[in-house]
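Predict fold of Sigma-54-dependent Fis family transcriptional regulator; 474 aa.
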Amino acid sequence: MPDRQPIALVVDDEPDICNLISMTLQRMNVRADIAMSVAEARRRLAEKQYHFCLTDMRLPDGDGLQIVETIQDLPADRALPVAVITAHGNMDSAITALKLGAFDFVSKPVNLERLRSLVQLALRLTEGRFLESQEFPALFQGQSEAIQTLRAQIEKIARSDAPVHITGEPGSGKELAARCIHEQGPRSNRAFITLHCESIAAEQLERHLFGDEYDRGQLHAANGGTLYLDEVNALPQELQTKLLNTLQEESFSNSATGEKIKLDIRIITGSRKRLADEARRGAFRSDLYYRLNVIELAIPPLRQRQEDIPLLTRNLLRRISAESRGATPKASQDAIQALQAYPFPGNLRELENILERAVTLGESSTLYASDLIIPAASPIPGDQIGDSVLPGNAKPISDVVLQLPAYGHQTGYPGQFATSEFETLDDFLQSIEREAIESALNETGWNRTAAAEKLGISFRSLRYRLKKLGLESE
Ligand SMILES: Nc1ncnc2c1ncn2[C@@H]1O[C@H](COP(=O)(O)OP(=O)(O)OP(=O)(O)O)[C@@H](O)[C@H]1O
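Predicted 3D structure, encoded as tokens:
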């Protein structure tokens, strides 16, 4: 069936690499068309529908990022996944490519095993299986605009393999969002593993993550699938370093046995605190932050979507009653009003608890406001992400979400910024970059080598950025 054979577009001007990739693809029954320049690649993309594209970063008439951008601009029905080949150790350009919409990257010298798993993932992405989201049960319930936007974002994020960082108040649905991304993505038939970093003693975390002689650990368990690290900011510094190395090297060793294991996971992290703030004040490695925060997803607090409360209450009452094998009570209008008036610092989990208590204690078939035990005054903690803690005229983070292109990503950052304060996305990103660089320089007494290390970028790249931002005249 030659016409059903997948076709990849390989963009590279180095004949040796083209040969190596074509031969590897051939063995996987994938045909490769070669383009030697940005212009040739654009022409081919305009002429033919490819299953995926693999592009080198350095091209004679431009760079791989231009190819990634061209692909993002294709109409939705012609969308295809694109991955980049980066120079060895150049994480900067890999992350830039991911932010622009590349689904993955491979660095030189090209490791064939890594290339094969990238190709397999690309083929799974084009299969379209994950696109059948209409059939996907709406785990994320709600009809509010905020939830509809979130569901659409999750659907798009699921199409890539880039790291995602999810922010949101306690109980707002971060873990559920991570699970939805996994379930709708190409790794859905593999494991989804959660590690609650805050609830495990710091000295036990390493064992849980990297294993010991009795247990192979959560990284191993998640291999091939998705690892969700909840409250990732609770990882002790040494473990942050170890995790960073693991992600960079794409392999890890079992803590006790020393066995080296190749890593192929999607990593999703979550935190209540803004990780950018934690990185800024030195509590979280900024290089790891940049590595994990390629795509950011913000879950709005329940009080910003009060119109969802009737539906959520109805569904929760049904579930709770089914679990206790009782009849489902109806919530009265005054009960719904009482719930809608409450700010829910504990979000969905608190709503579940309030309803569970009411069902256990209630006896009638209708639940009234008087049956609900709702705390009178509920402080909304200041270090959490929510409408109450944003400075000045900044918008809640959920409003800062940018439009996601097909196979693309959101590029919002959890800073004190709202995009509305800036004229263009570039201005917005530059202000974040400037702030991160200035803070690294301040923390290192303007030692540029140390600052570059702290930021996880090369010295040359820091100098380039300093120049670009006008922080260095030379
Ligand atoms: N939109 C939603 N529809 C239905 N159930 C939801 C929704 N959002 C959250 N939940 C439910 O609320 C509970 C809390 O969600 P989850 O554990 O994902 O929150 P979290 O933000 O990860 O919490 P924590 O910060 O405590 O780790 C779960 O039982 C989850 O299934």
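Residues 140-142, 168, 170-176, 230, 270, 272, 348-349, 352 surround adenosine-5'-triphosphate (CB under 6 Å).
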